[in-house]
Design brief:
Lipovitellin-phosvitin complex, beta-sheet shell regions; two-stranded antiparallel sheet
């Protein structure tokens, strides 16, 4: 009985010493999954767009809500000095929309995504790159499946420390217009649990418009915000869970020949990703 209690005390001391070491010496956050591991993920995303246009008769408001539920796998095929090579497989996807005109397109997209395979590479800091041998994979699908915000610093960081990154806004359409922009984000290592194996990282930032939007886009970003939290499993080398909310305010101006006034649009993207335990 005493030996059992002693073992528990020793175990608690080992865990505590690991936490103290991580707080004082710092840890290096990395996306570095083990070769031959299969990461099974579920992605839930909702995009709510509200457009308001002023007319001579008053204001006209349109609201569109799109949802996506995706189950996918990332199979770790190998690792190099540049990062990890993965094969992503979309097992199933369910898309819904309140836009009657877009419903048929959503159904076609479901069929196209189901069973889709693509290869990509993830660097240790979380940067995602497409595999040179798979040029046909679309960038949009790559960003949805990979779920990796290029976030982590290369050097070790201590608990409570912050770092800044600037990343491109994920591709999105607002009432048919592409909204370009960059996310200026401050990340922070908030806490460590499970003996330092689990790291909670928060993110807060703002969305800035690009200097020169694409020609004929008709869209101008005014402002935006991003908030989120990531749970990094250091032992597995992957995101165990993540929560993100992006809100943008923009103006879409149709060509003058249409005679249609500008539309002020608010878009809210809410995303939750969960990786199954082994």
């Amino acid at each position: 009985m005493r030996s059992v209690k002693a073992a528990r005390v020793i175990g608690m001391l080992v865990i505590a010493s690991g936490r103290v070491w991580a707080q004082t010496a710092g840890i290096t956050l990395q996306i570095r999954p083990h070769v031959n591991d299969t990461l099974r993920m579920r992605l839930d995303q909702q995009t709510e767009m509200t457009g308001v246009r002023r007319t001579t008769a008053g204001e006209v408001t349109a609201i569109v809500v799109n949802t996506m539920k995706m189950f996918s796998r990332a199979i770790v095929e190998g690792a190099t000095e540049k990062g990890t090579n993965l094969l992503a497989v979309t097992d199933s996807v369910l898309l819904t929309t309140t836009d009657d005109l877009a419903r048929a397109a959503a159904q076609r997209a479901e069929l196209e995504l189901r069973g889709k395979q693509m290869r990509f590479r993830v660097s240790w800091d979380g940067t995602v790159g497409m595999n040179e041998s798979d040029p046909g994979a679309s960038r949009e699908i790559a960003q949805v499946v990979s779920l990796m915000p290029a976030a982590f610093p290369k050097a070790a960081i201590k608990l409570g420390e912050s770092w800044i990154r600037e990343v491109a806004l994920p591709p999105s359409q607002q009432f048919g217009a592409q909204i370009p922009g960059k996310l200026h984000i401050t990340f922070r290592l908030d806490s460590l649990t499970h003996g330092g194996d689990w790291a909670f990282v928060s993110m807060r930032g703002e969305l800035k418009p690009v200097v020169a939007p694409p020609a004929n886009s008709g869209a101008t970003l005014e402002r935006g915000t991003v908030n989120g939290t990531m749970l990094v499993d250091q032992k597995r080398g992957w995101l165990t869970e993540s929560w993100f909310t992006i809100v943008t305010i923009s103006v879409i101006t149709p060509p003058l020949m249409t005679g249609i006034g500008a539309t002020h649009v608010q878009m809210r993207i809410t995303q939750h990703m969960h990786t199954e335990r082994r």
